[in-house]
Amino acid sequence: MSEAMGEESEPVRAWREPAGERLARWARTRTGTGGLSRAALRRAVPDHWSFMLWEIALYSFLVLVVTGVYLSFFFHPSAQPTVYHGSYAPLDGQRVSGAFDSTMHISFEVRGGLLMRQAHHWAALIFLAAVLAHLMRVFFTGAFRRPRELTWVLDFLVLVVGMVEGLTGYDLPGDLLSGTGLAVVEGTLLAVPVVGTYLSYLLFGGAFPGHDLEARFATLHVLLLPAVITALLAAHLALRLRHRHTQWAAPGRTERNVVGLPLRVYAVKSAGYLFIVAGVIFTMAAVAQINPIWEYGPYRPDQVSSGSQPDWYMGALDGLLRVMPGWEVTVGGHTLVLDVLVPLLAAVGLFLALGAYPFIETRVTGDRREHHLLDRPRDHPVRTALGTAWLSVYLLTLTGGANDIIATHFHVSVNAVTWAVRIGLFTVPAVVHTVTRRLALGLQQRDRDMVLHGRETGIIVRLPNGGYTEIHEPLDRRRRQILTARKPPKPPEPLP
Ligand code: HEM
């Protein structure tokens, strides 16, 4: 009997737990998170390409952290003047800042330094583009509705903090372009009534450009803001696990279930995605030059290069400043610099409207129900029209930010471009709003016709009375459900 038992248990003894499983069991027993992670890994995650936009943002942020840490080994955040004697001969003997000198050293002497710098810069552009695209996806599909308003606010803050992070980043090398950008920041701060001068002194540590600028910006850029972004992204992930992912309407999908891949499968797929994002960024870094500071030269307060352009995510704010007429008024002996104040207030309004939108919509519509199925943009014509109008303002101001480049490339007057943007800002959003709303209503009407009468087949038959009619085909179940999903039969119960 014991022999038989021994024979039976042999295969069990021969099986050795794989190293990964042993490590996971070790961690589980030490941290007591086994139940939690097992439950989390069993969750279903809906799969759709548009849900990947947030992942692109997350993975490009990881690339930013890795490349940023590499750069910080060699970068010296110093405003101290020094004489450049590196291997880039045209600048030899020039007076530059310590920051510029070290960035030149990273670019020309440090092994892999230029690749890392370029990857860092490209990743920054992609990170913010992915965050904005993700916000737009969430907006147009109504994924921000209860219970995900907080997730929307977190993502919105990632956009705003990411913009400041990018600004402090491209101002670090101390080149002519970044110095010009900083001069704009200084001018904007000084225009703030009453506290403007204090704000400027606080940021620059004295009269611009001051000696503390590099050190302060580096602390903000390398330490503080990345920590804030990491916290915001982590909070997003935690809330996503808490509330599960939204999904598109389809047969079998309701407000109370989730149809998708198990999280453990999704996680593997997503990890593959990390390598694709990193691969694309590093390929771009290897083949496409970005921010060649040796062409701009070191910053000199008395110089501005022509065609100075900020990174794209600051372009809209720059555009607002560029298209505003140079107005000033004097009130009670104090000068109000309207050509800076008005763009500043407009920018705050533009972004606050975006960040607060979920709360505005809830207040206006009174819809406080939980929503887990996504809307098709056409099903909410007013929201969709407001979104496209917001985008049109954003794109117009971005165009305003490129007024000099457009003027030189298309051989038109820079004043003509500026005036076109000014007029556009007052007319285009209204036109875009109206056209989008009409389009959405038209598409709704078409959907309604399809549900009621079926799909047009293009086959015309002649009737016995001599008339002609087109044969309509009934919709399949999936299509029918998608078209009718916007009206749930009764409000869903709040989830436990
Ligand atoms: C959302 C996150 C981040 C964004 C948007 C961002 C953006 C940028 C940009 C646009 C530059 C200018 C690059 C250039 O010279 O062409 C820069 C420089 C730099 N960044 Fe970041 N960065 C981020 C995160 C980080 C992190 C996490 C670190 C370090 C831990 C870091 C360290 C640095 C350093 C040391 C430089 C100066 C070196 C150089 O300019 O070559 N960055 N950053």
How does this structure look, described?
By secondary structure, the protein is mostly helical. The chain has a domain at 48-321: Cytochrome Bc1 Complex, Chain C (Up-down Bundle). It is 64% helix and 6% strand. The chain contains 19 helices and 8 strands. The protein has helices at 2-14, 19-31, 34-42, 53-72, 98-108, 113-141, 149-170, 176-191, 196-204, 213-243, 263-287, 293-296, 312-323, 338-355, 357-365, 381-401, 403-410, 414-453, 477-484; strands at residues 44-45, 81-83, 95-97, 261-262, 329-331, 334-336, 455-462, 468-473. The strands form 4 sheets. Strands 1-4 form a two-stranded antiparallel sheet. It has a two-stranded antiparallel sheet with strand order 2-3. A hairpin with a 2-residue loop joins strand 5 (329-331) and strand 6 (334-336). The longest helix has 40 residues, at 414-453. The protein is globular. Mean pLDDT is 91; it is low at 1-10 and 488-492. The structure holds protoporphyrin IX containing FE. Protoporphyrin IX containing FE binds at residues 61, 64-65, 68-69, 71-72, 75, 103, 106, 117, 120-121, 124, 127, 162, 165-166, 169-170, 172-173, 221-222, 226, 229, 291.
